[in-house]
Amino acid sequence: MNEQIPVNETPMSRYRLLVVDDEESILGLYKEILSPAEDLGGDLDEEPLLPDFELTMCNQGDQAVDAVRVAMAEGRPYSVALLDVRMPPGPDGVWTAENIRALDPNIEIVIVSAYSDVNTRELNRRVTPPEKLLYIQKPLHPEELRQLAKSLCAKWKTARDLIMLNATLQKQVDMRTNALSEANKRLKRDMAVRMRMLQELLESEERYRLLFEEDITGDFVAAPDGVLKACNKAFARIFGFGTVPDAMSVNIFDLQLTGSDDSLRDLILTRKKLENFEGVFRRRDLRTVHVIGTIIGILNVRGQIVEIRGYLLDVTERKRLEEQLRIAQKMEAIGTLAGGIAHDFNNILGVITGYTEIILENTDKGSSLERRLKEILGACRRAKDLINQILNFSRQGTQEKKALRVSPLIKETVKLLRTSLPASLDIRENIMTGNDTVMADPSQIHQILLNLCTNAAHAMRERGGLLEISLAEVHLDEATVSKTPGLSAGAYVVITVTDSGHGIPKTIQEKIFDPFFTTKKPGEGTGMGLAVVHGIVKQHSGVVYVQSEEGKGASFQVLLPQTGLMDDTVTDEESRMLPIGKGRILFVDDEKALVDIGREILEGLGYEVVARTSSVEALEAFRFQPDKFDLILTDQNMPNLTGMELAEKALQTRPDVPIILCTGFSEIVSYSKVREMGIREIVMKPILKRQLAESIHRALTSDSTARA
């Protein structure tokens, strides 16, 4: 189903909700729960707890379908539809949902029923896609219903914004396509001029010979069966022959890459003359070359081809630059999107992490609850690392590498895969070495494993099969590494991911590591998984190989340089004393939830906390009593006054005040600038309790020149 926004859609100041139930009392309950305070005669001065909803109430399903039809025609679509299942005497909620979905592919649909016998399999079959369909049971809890409405409206708006972004990107692609079309027209005119020049050269054999041999295009003359009769030096160079005589044994038809859309032989036989012909050919060294040019079949009086002449221009570099430009534009879009969501996502993680740590402190040691809470914290750390990695990838930034063992990451990945992949997949691990320490970023090694295993699982999704992750070591000598550019002789850790899926065709194996290349259906993949793997392995001075045969599965082998350093990722944090202190801290964050968590954590560490959700109010409080505060702990991304601006103004009032800056993502934050300002520490969100305690301890015990 193609999701799109109608061209006549108007900007909306209120989220529109469609509520359908045959009972007036239930409709009244919905209105009481979801209507803004002013609609119910409430106090208009109170801060609204809900977004500004516009409710439409219907007693029957056919009325609801008509309402959606009118809304789409007016360009004011509904965000969410809440449908009862049984609404006698009219059609039921499933029929209503199915018809609403046919009219509006973007609306979020919630099926509400007091009965547990609803056929969810039939519901999911008739009302697609499943990610825009929810099923809940009555009775409805007001707070849950409010949160559900807010969340679904936010999800609907996000999807709507993404569709608009895609439309903008498509417009940019169209503009560049038009520019390329104009270039092709100019090239066609240039080729026409060249043809006229060649016709004139026929009048003089000597002039023809000189120009033929020195032409920058690859010129050739071939027999009707494709065997070369003559060519120039440019042709030999384009196709990788050392000299013109070396090229004379070749057949021009055999140079065309197997699998090309149109056979050059068939095109010549049917069209006789090919202008602005573009093709992909194979050089003598088996590398591909992109050419554009004109190929002409010379006819005799009976209309038969007696000779083939061609003039080919190597545009491989131009194609490469065009692809780099396209990838750069996509990466720019990804980077913009990633930066926009990173801050909010880290704040969400901060709430989860903070409350989990608070609960963990009051949990019995060794209990199942403690184990589960530690699993949550581990997942939050991985999510934090993943956010940083996405940001670094979109900015092509550097990674923090340290000595780590690969086998624990493999065991963790296998554990995760067994809980998330179907039981039809037999997942095995085969650790064949204990010398598995490499210099690497742990989150990136984790991503290599997940990306390779996810692709392997996708290849076996229909019939199941075997997915095996093995770990070994190998020593490469000079003779071996001389055949692989980028590798040095020495010991390597070898990670191998093998599956028994459908395999990878030979014709596309050299493309699978290209960014955005994918064989998956739309919506199933971005084409970035193997490109990310290749980029990470290259950053770690390694290499990745693939071996595959159609119908016999695939095997990906990653070689990473082994290191003799000790693994420094395994530390016993619980054995270290948690720094406890005293003093008065001014804590500033525009997220109230983070302020509440931070206050509780800081007070638990022994500090007195003055918290503000406004950076402007925080600055006023500090300026009123600057000597009453021992430290300022501030978020960076805040309205009106950023964390760095707050720090700058606070340091003007009191230059020796210790300041810690917290940030989830900000391109303008640089360590050198922070050090120059006098900020003591930078802490990346989401913040763990130990991380916060140690940062505060360092800031309070260091002088004003301490590192940031």
UniProtKB/TrEMBL annotation:
Record keywords, A-Z: Phosphoprotein
Coiled coil: none
Modified residues (4-aspartylphosphate): 84, 635
Domain Histidine kinase stretches: 340-564
Gene3D superfamilies: 1.10.287.130, 3.40.50.2300, Histidine kinase-like ATPase, C-terminal domain, PAS domain
Domain Response regulatory: 16-153, 584-700
Keyword S-adenosyl-L-methionine part of the UniProt annotation: no
Record protein name field: histidine kinase
Organism: Desulfocurvibacter africanus PCS
Record lineage: Bacteria, Pseudomonadati, Thermodesulfobacteriota, Desulfovibrionia, Desulfovibrionales
